[in-house]
Design goal:
By secondary structure, this protein is α+β, with helices and mostly antiparallel strands. It has four helices and ten strands, in the order E-E-E-E-H-H-E-E-E-E-E-E-H-H. The protein has a seven-stranded antiparallel beta sheet.
Length: 195
Amino acid sequence: MKKAFRVNREAFFDGGKYNRKICITKREQIIEKCYFVRYEAQTVLRKRNFMNLCITTKVEQDYRTVFNRFDLKLFLKLKPPLVSFNILRFDGCKPGDEVILEISILGNKQQWNALITEQFENGDMICFIDTGKVLPKPLTYWKHKHIIENCVDSSKIIDDICFETGNKLLNYLLFPLIFMQFYYRKPIYKSYFRK
């Protein structure tokens, strides 16, 4: 016998964090659960087959210095192995800026066009978000949140990524490849932002 669920979601954005309350009615009983979810992509993970990964790297420099050094020089250093690309456009990290790449994977050339859609900061963090406009196959959705958190005498860089291919199996096959490409950044961040 199938179990019936009715889900009512209420979410609000609060300084880069979501507080989501999910009320589930099952057999005329109401069970309330409160979930604290970090970023907005999480609110749709249950509805669609989005994949989400988050990699944190602690670096020595303060968070404002780190943010100001997110430039073309760093971007070139972060290039993953086995992937070659030509930079057609690199505006920066402010809303409205674009990054356009011609990517070659095993000789197959495709375009990647990302738009910086948001940037915000408070006394503890700076965040900017790039969203894919034109994506290489098989990706159909991409949102990358670059978060730089303030720590005592240091900072943390968080790469929070949400992606989708449109195929659940392909999502799971692609996940470890994308994870390793961004995990590859950790020693580069540590070296580049050393005092």
